[in-house]
Amino acid sequence: MKKFLMILIYFVLVTNSIAQISNFVSNVKIENAIEGESLKLTAELYNIENIYRIEIVYKTFGESEYKNLEMVISGTQATVSIPSEETIPPFIEYYLLIQLKDGSKQTYPLEIEQGASPIQIAISSKSEKSNQVIVLSPEENEVMTEDDFLISLSFVRASDIIDITRTKIFLNGIDISSKAIVDQELITITREQIGDINLENDYKVEIKIYDKNGNFVSTLSRNFKVVSQQVARAMESEFKYMGLIKAEARNENTNSNQIFYKNILADFNSSFYEWQLNANAYFTSEEKDNLQPFNRYSLSIQNGDLLSLKIGDAFPRFPNLILDGKRVRGFTGELNLGFFNIQTSYGEINRKIEGKLLQTYSANDVQLANDIISINQSKYNAPFGKVIFGSFNRQLFAIRPSFGSGENFQLGFSYLHSIDDKNSIEFGTRPKENVVIGSDLKLSFDNNNILLTSQAAVSVINKDISTGTLNDAQIDSIFTTNKDLNINASDVKKIRDLIDKFITVNQYLGPWNPQKLSSLGAESSLTLNYFNNNIKATYIYRGNDYQSFGQSYLRTDIKGINLIDRIRMLDNKLFLSVGYESLKDNLQNTKLTTTQFNTISASISYFPRMNFPNITIGYSNNHNKNGFDLNDIQFGKYAIDETTNRISLIATYDVFYLVKHSTSFTFSNSVRKVKSFQNGDSKYSNISFNVSSYWNKNLVSTFGLIYNNLEYYGYPFNYFTFSIGGKYTLPENKLSLSGNISPSFGDFKRQTFELLVSYNLLENFVISFQARVFRIPDKSTNSIVGLITRLNI
Amino acid sequence: MKIFLVIFLIVVFALNTSAKNFPSSNQIALIKKIVKEVHVKKTADAQIENAKVGVSLSDGGQVITKSKSLAIIILTKDKSLLTVRENSILNIYQRKEGRGLNTSTNIEKGVITFKVEKQNVEDGFEFVTPSAVASIRGTSGVLDVDSTETDILLEEGEVFVQSKFDPSKNATLNGGKKLVINVDGNIEIQDLDENDKKKIDDAKKTNTKKLNIITPYGILEIEYLTN
Fold first, then answer.
1. Which segment of the chain is annotated as a signal peptide (chain B) (predicted)?
2. CB contact under 8 A, A192 and B74
């Protein structure tokens, strides 16, 4: 009765809903939202011909600063993995930033800048109790012979509340618990217990653990394979390899434009003892000379954590003030000896894109404009031309030697140099050069319960190296002829010769006020992990001129503190998180006034791991205010005084009624009050509900509802979307069919239909047909039709 | 408001300070794989029997491998792996001290390949041989033991070794090195040479392969170990 009551309460909550719409993103799939494990997101795309680049913009609980990562676009999907160190309960907030080829941008969900809330992903914690139950055999992806078949669990470390005899073991969905031998703190199932049947197959073993009251505690699973002796011998060769080739042909019909795309992806992984060799390549017809590369390729060799060498495209991770999230096409490698380590990256971060000459001018009729420059007169018969500027080839070199393994201590020093090749294109403006030097330190004590991390970097940038370094005559003309400056020209030359070894020296070199720490970036954090409290205190400082070409998304001209406490209770079932952040800008007095940014946030999460929904409730209050009075006649128009309050709820629950139904419900509401003469207030509400029903091993259905309500500058924008779909797999997994219909109503009207058919022609060869139709009533009907083949080697 | 705060703090304190006690450990290890002829004693008092995959060993348990045989055993407390090579005898013991589990393996003779997981602060792991006691916190390598001498070939990690009869004679061995200690407590440390590395590679081979050679007199079957 209680169960039905809880189900009823849960469904009563689902009376209204919100969701996400986009002109470019159909949906985002999330895998593995678990603490300390990397979080993979896959966005299904359409209108791909307009997309130039997609980034995920995300932050963890209690932080106001977002981080960006570029997503890798492959066919109709864009994927990214948020690093494991960022997946911290209670949740991650994110939105997608879609840069279009016409230079404009759009977010998913829409209208983020107008006050719409980012999407929250609840990060569930690992149960300490499930960590305490050890799967002795099999290992994940283990290959074993029938004679070696062994499923075994150790409860030596398990809590007293765990009841070993209630443990359920499922092999490919079939309950084999009755075959298990339970002996004190050990459970084993051997070949003998399974019986005399042919075991050669792929398996997934699922283990469900219960407490002494019969309450479900957690699930563990392992995938493994049983093969014959002959196959095992062949697989036990020192050289192992596997590969994948995927080819796609796709026709997109958008607003009566037909575009045909082709792409091919090849991935090859091999190992020889501890050595791994990986090669991958993605080539697409979307590759164009006038855009940054869409093709991707790399070849890497790796020996565990000791050595890694990669040629081609890489996203190296240095301390985040220096280099993080940038694609580098060239060489990336690292050697980790423990007491000494070295990491380096060298290559191209921007490809040259030639500009365009639109019009020429004689010396008499030339106008003054930003896009009119002097051009090669002998080549174009005119001295000046109006151009569309291209972008220079930009090279980057970074190196970081470090000392210590990082387990308890590591001290690193970083150097980054990046420069535009000014001769790489004809029509470009202001080629730049950047040098950053920095250091970082990690200290940990008491099994990492006390962790101190710190980094600092100083940047120097030259904003126009087209004229090169100042020569002696130029220095003399300034300092010899202008005695009032009271600077010795020979001293300037000495300094120039010294600095010129690192960066071009001329009048565009900055910063001009280094003594005010304008190009300093620094942050330091102390984490204490005691009494189930995880307290992190961070101080950040970034001068207004700090810039690294290896890091495009750093917020500068900001300093302040951030305090977060995550309290774990009831074996990580209950989380209470509180955060406070206080930042301010105008560090070098380069603005009329200083703005203070204060945020308080709180969240409570309950992950019961039993017959009750996982629930996360969050609240945040953000107040930004500067020193100007709204009524000030002169500066009132620059006054900032705005407050945003936001509440959110995420609930997920597996309902067992006839079959399993995985449900999720999210609610988000934010209200921004802006004190100004204009009505800049905004209100945003979003409710969504989704259910996936697993009718049998071959049939899964999905149903979703979304309600969105936005009011910005007094203008409402409301819509409602529902979606229904399913996936049916024929026996023996030869053929699978999946489809989805999703109409939207209200201020946003659209109907979408998606169909995917996959057929396993051979055991390792799959052919898929994909069709998507998007209809915007009274405007357009667009479609994508594609054929994908996939071969596993 | 203050009352709520006090109640909240009491609840949080109570939830966080509930002590956890691990149950005592009965089964120390489990046989994961066997090749050819392996015998076990499940406990100190048990009879010797033929080993099977899935058989567990408790305090005082013993593994005996015959010629061309081996056994892989896995520790139930942390999944550390020990491979008992041919013609070896290994005894295993474990005692509970506070929250910790201290495991001791007594090797009378033979070759043991070990991959010991990093031990919790409260836990311990040691090898006892006729000439030495080696304490390990998380490392991998090979132990070659006879009645007068113990060789430890260490791939990675760190091992503290002391003479069984004179603890004042001791040394710390780091990855990439080899230590030889005899019953008199004399200790020699040197870098792993090519022979040592080959010995480590050979000791890791746990799978059998068969090679059939057809001769005029019949089929000659050669079975050998490989990785």
1. 1-19
2. no
